[in-house]
Amino acid sequence: MGQYLDFQQLKAGDPLPSVTKEPITKVQLVRYAGASGDFNPLHTDDATARQAGLKGVIAQGLLVMGFVGQAITTWAPKRFLKRFKVRLMGMTFPGDVITVHATVVEKHSGPEGLRVVCDTTAKDQEGSTKLSGQFEVLVPE
Amino acid sequence: MADKSKVGMTFPPTLFRVERVKIKELVEAIGDPNPIYVDAEAAAREGHPDTPCPPTFFTLAFQEFTGHYFRVLEELGMPLERVLQGEEEYEYLRDVYPGEKLTLTTTVESITEKKTRSGLMDLVDVRTTLADESGEAVLRAGSLIIERKDDA
Fold it and tell me: What does the alpha-carbon distance between residue A117 and residue A80 come to, in Å, rounded to a whole number?
């Protein structure tokens, strides 16, 4: 598990290495729609999205949460993840390049191991925040 | 508008089976190359008996492909085209693997009306528990669903 972060060495305030995704594509939105079974046309049909006053289709907010989930499991093994919460804040469009950031906010040791709480945000190429949230990993003793 | 008489109500449970192909579809849509979700040997190297579900798999499970979420919105009287997702939260009690049969149970925790710069909204807080076949909870989820209202 050498590729994961050593949470014992991290302290509150430390940033985790950010993870940048490939630009979002329309095909990706269709794939996510198929995976989820949510066929809201705002995510797949430009004409519908324009009628709703948007410049075109918007990404599913929970796809962006999926990006953050991907980033977390590059920092810590999946089985360490105990809590994950997000607030969706802005619309994301095809072509946007999302970068996931995180910072350690709290660490405490208990009988089960080391609990580490991190704040996280997902931002686009202009630095506009699409999502903010928090997660907690439990590193066993 | 969201039906406030439904606060405290628990919806009829939905049963679903964790399917390997749905996990694969999700990680491909996200573009997550982590092999543990599709390769049992890679998963075993991290101590898993099989390929685990990715962190946001349950988004799909209870909200969408099972139809559970749509039934909840319909019961609450919330039209889909006015609904936005505001927040989403998961507490992972244990990892879940393909082939497991899980039961989703959703309760309406609160419905709050809020005036915002973009108009009047109902904030609906629903809590969902996923339990395994022995009835043990494996995941607890919270969703804040926002309905934009006409009379804004």
Answer: 12
